[in-house]
# Entry
Amino acid sequence: MGLFSFFSNNTTTSDAIQLLDAKTFRAAIAANENVQVVDVRTAMEFQQGHFDNAINISFFDSNFVTQMERFDKSKPIYLYCKSGNRSGKAAGLLAAKGFEEIYDLKGGY
# Structure
């Protein structure tokens, strides 16, 4: 029950998480080639199109959190999905794991 309530709550309430509109998101990831950009959609969705330099880690993977822990928690991380729902949940998980600066694409890809 606790896990269900965690996933059903709005996970963008952390101070570490900022929602960005598409224009701001694109500009931010274009400004730095070493930026951490993660597409949390499925592999099939990723193959249909994605941002340059994005790494695909599906939110639905059973080891999603483990895969995300390989990123540097002190550096900004940019997340997106199709609608903003999965990336918003992912942002909440990362904030709980100590990521300091998380940017979520508002409205999705």
